[in-house]
Amino acid sequence: KHTVNLDNRTADVRVKPFTLEMGITFELHVSISGKKINVSEVPELSLPEDWMRDKLELNFYKSEEGGGEVESVNYDKQSRRAVITFLRPG
């Protein structure tokens, strides 16, 4: 518990712990065909291109969300598009 002086007034404040979210949440627009997914409107983030490729691969690798083993990720930062290719169709 702390007392803070604000414009000739005092206020009692109390500190409470909280959890910071460490991830970045963003929305993707996706069109799907047998073995490839075309992703458009990838958000512009201040990440190196290889980090964004890794982030996309991890996201689409999650089998519990319908993903699978990723063969390759082709990402173009300028057009904000990516093509994710899976090892097996599904």
Automatic annotation (TrEMBL):
InterPro entries listed in its UniProt record: Nmi/IFP35_dom, Nucleotide-bd_a/b_plait_sf
GO CC annotations on file: cytoplasm
Listed name of the protein: NMI protein
Top-level lineage group: Eukaryota
Residue stretches making up the NID domain: 1-72
Pfam families hit by this protein: NID (PF07292)
Record lineage: Eukaryota, Metazoa, Chordata, Craniata, Vertebrata
